[in-house]
Amino acid sequence: MNLSGIREYFPVLNQEINGHPLVYLDSAATSQKPVQVLEAVKRYYEMDNANVHRGVHTLGSRATDAYEGARDKVRGFLNARHPEEIIFTRGTTTALNLVAASYARAVCREGDEIVITPMEHHSNLIPWQQVARVTGATLKYIPLQPDGTMTLEDAEATITSNTKIVSATYVSNVLGVINPIKELAAIAHRNGAVMVVDGAQSTPHMKVDVQDLDCDFYAFSGHKMCAPTGIGALYGKKELLEKMEPVEFGGEMIDHVDLHESTWKELPWRFEGGTPIIAGAVGLGAAIDFLSEIGMDAIAEHEHRLTAYAMDRMSEIEDLVIYGPREHRAGLVTFNLGDIHAHDVSTVLDTKGIAIRAGHHCCQPLMRWLKASSTARASFYLYNTEDEIDRLVSALNQTKEFFDHAIG
Amino acid sequence: MQLDDLYRRVIMDHYKNPRNRGQFEDGGFTIDLNNPTCGDKISLQMKVEDGVVQDARYTGEGCSISMSSASMMTDAVKGKTLEEALQLAENFSQLMQGNNVEFEYEDIEALSGVNKFPARIKCATLAWNAMRKGIEQAKQ
What we know:
The complex is a heterodimer of chains A (about 400) and B (about 140). Chain A is of the alpha/beta class and about 400 residues long. Chain A is built from 13 helices and 17 strands. Chain A is globular. Chain A starts with 15 loop residues before the first strand and ends with a helix. Chain B has a three-stranded antiparallel beta sheet. Chain B has about 140 residues and is of the alpha+beta class. The mean pLDDT of chain B is about 95. Classes of the chains: A alpha/beta (about 400), B alpha+beta (about 140). The interface between A and B is medium-sized, with 21 and 23 residues.
């Protein structure tokens, strides 16, 4: 399978919005789903649906095989060593909250530090604020350069022997910055801290190798990488996961239950209380197959080319400000068009069939750092084309004309 | 969907030349309201004496719809009793639901087009929700 003709696999793209062919440039919020994923979920419900890890019957075995098969696909996709290092969650937010609620609350004491960056999504910020509030640990930030990148010198200066946790996003959902995770992990480890990675914006778009990064935890969401909503995963190094207490208790996660005491199943199931997201995991497995068949390098290359093209073309638009670094960036462009509010830009583009994101992108502290109350963002994925970027650019020029005229 | 339905001339005039933007040097009380889904913010100040809104000012950040709506609301509410002000907010909410409502302060009717842009209704109602909160506060 290659990228030409890939759009045929995404039924949702084949429609008109407000009389124009849909141009979907909001994949950083959620990606569209190919028929391969939709079919896999449908087939699971039509043929194999049963609860996992309990029934003796045939469907129960098939459902369990499908669910655990999906886990092994995630393991392979992230190049984790063991399948039990993969815990299925509702998404990145739940995965990061699991690390915060279980690992961090047990480890952090007053005087300890948790180090993050100002570019974090709320989901990689608020869990740590809460840990700091409860444990008395201090939340510290690695400062950013004017273009939104960080230097390793600043990271070295911020991470100390009191630091217990360093958590950073691999790719910023606003700036497009790709953070030096491998180097950060090395600095964290030299100081006796663990490295947590928010992989929501990296996993869908590039090859990820958790062993090479040597991160301790890695969280991501399926829905940004062609899988259904409601499924994601946490990777954790086995020796760390084994020391962690579950945060959700109930069915599926127990070993032995007494009236007053209970014990937990082995990894990874002790962290998956309740009936898991079976169909979601099947969909995620199908999404991984789909992306792997195309090749993550080919996808990264395609997005790199599109982004370079978009940066060039959008730079030509008068009064358009692009946030984040010029080079070495991920497949999204965050911008503002003169004084026109991002919501107004987004509404005008929508009337032309173009879907972009407008607002604070769940990054309020970063917005304050950028001194922008809101921004607009166009984000790209494997199904986007240069032609769509041309339509974006032309619509932005029309937006500017419209508002110049309307405001006078 | 026609853009001109949304961005009517009256709205853009309020956006470009906002009425009542700023803060009182003294007196009045303040209501801060955010729209957490999109980041719009308003800080509304009102002076209420003898059950009548004497004056209203606002500062804030937001799109043309939310800021022009704040400009109109602060103009419209001046001189109204608390009950009349609440009725105005109710009428505005009816307008957003697509109902035909007439306003003494006619500019407001230009916002009727927002109804066709469901994602933008929360922009238009931010200032009115702040006013409603303020009136309820003043009544206590």
